Automatic annotation (TrEMBL):
Secretion signal span: none
Cross-referenced InterPro entries: Actinin_actin-bd_CS, CH_dom, CH_dom_sf
CDD domains noted in UniProt: CH_ACTN_rpt1 (cd21214), CH_ACTN_rpt2 (cd21216)
Organism of derivation: Petrolisthes cinctipes (Flat porcelain crab)
Alphabetical UniProt keywords: Actin-binding, Repeat
Full protein name: Calponin-homology (CH) domain-containing protein
Domain Calponin-homology (CH): residue ranges: 3-107, 116-222
Domain of life from the UniProt record: Eukaryota
GO molecular function, one term: actin binding
Gene3D superfamilies assigned: Calponin-like domain (1.10.418.10)
One Pfam family from the record: CH
PROSITE patterns assigned: ACTININ_2 (PS00020), CH (PS50021)
Amino acid sequence: PAGSIPVTFTAWCNSHLRKAGTLIESIEEEFRNGLKLMLLLEVISGETLPKPDRGKMRFHKIANVNKALDFIASKGVKLVSIGAEEIVDGNLKMTLGMIWTIILRFAIQDISVEEMTAKEGLLLWCQRKTAPYKNVNVQNFHTSFKDGLAFCALIHRHRPDLLDYSQLSKDDPLHNLNLAFDIAEKHLDIPRMLDPDDLVNTPKADERAIMTYVSCYYHAFQGAQQVNRVTDEGSAKG
């Protein structure tokens, strides 16, 4: 349901915007003037966008949103039928579509595992990491994550100190989901982006929401591994 997507995308945007000392509460309202949208892109890309128009008129807002859209397009993204006017008017569907293209481009596109990239690479990463765990069989980004065990396995594989996987049961999905989300928030700096009740009660969860959240695990763990590898090499040389 679309219900879960605004919640997930808002939390994802905030996980980046907080680095610049700000947050959004309403995804369809707070990107309308383009200012926080431009800021979000600066935070996730590490690049500087053109100076925003500070005026309050509609044409200033459209100009700012267009600067953001131009920046996204400059990264090789085709923005099919996403227009600045609709974002400025608070069109939720269009705004979510735009945020999804940003998530795909900046959080998922560059994932590479063996020969697989982007979505397929992220799925392969999940399969590899959770392969040793009983009751986990990651085949997709909707039903495979419903009982929470895949999230718990991903955490345990990288940080076995944080939870005892052997104590978990497939029959208690709410416990598993809450456990994973709480640990990720407290110890991995990954905010809650999914609603456990929503996941359990929806026959097929929205894969955009799950991919967005799982990509945060990938970056948290892969990033940490790369940092560790560099420090290990440094200390080995010394």
